Amino acid sequence: MFPDWIIDVLFWIAVVFLVGVYVSWRATRLDRLHVRVETARAALDAALVRRAAVALELAASRQLDPATSLVLATAAHEARTADSDAREFAESDLSRALRAVVDQPDFTDTLKAKGDGQPVLDEMATASAKVVYARRFYNDAVSQARIARRKMLIRVLPLAGRAPLPGFFEIDDDPPVALRG
Questions:
Q1: Long-range CB contacts (within 8 A, 24+) of 29-33
Q2: Predicted model pTM
Q3: Which CB contacts under 8 angstroms, 24+ apart, belong to 24-28?
Q4: For residue range 59-70, what is the model confidence (pLDDT) as tens digits?
Q5: Where are the transmembrane segments (predicted)?
């Protein structure tokens, strides 16, 4: 019915079309993974800023002795103002400062006895937990994007464009023992 050359041409058109659809699908998936990384990073940044704000609130609450307030306020300020290169270290220092303050013997009992300390403790527990979850979600998104970028097709046809390879965010984010739920 049709000459052989028309069938050959239609076959190659179909192959090129299917390859194009597949490449487009892979590029779209990679783009969605990069958007997921950016969204997770924004959520992580928000959680870190909130934790630092609560730490500053606790330091300024006059519930702590002056030396402890100064240590906590300094760590929170450093975490909020650190540049991207020093951010992981500053956030880890804030985590250690929070543990040193909150895990003091009888700290939570003393703060609760003063009357208005419980809301700050609850807020600190929530903020610390959100940091843990946000960091896990971010690192999971980075892992998925890195796996996708290692695929041969992504490397041969530079489907990632000029997007930088996302990096993991590694901090000491263990919350104080007294705040663990």
A1: 29/148, 30/145, 30/148, 30/149, 30/154, 30/159, 30/160, 33/141, 33/144, 33/145, 33/148
A2: 0.84
A3: 26/151, 26/153, 26/154, 26/159, 27/159
A4: 888 877 888 889
A5: 6-25
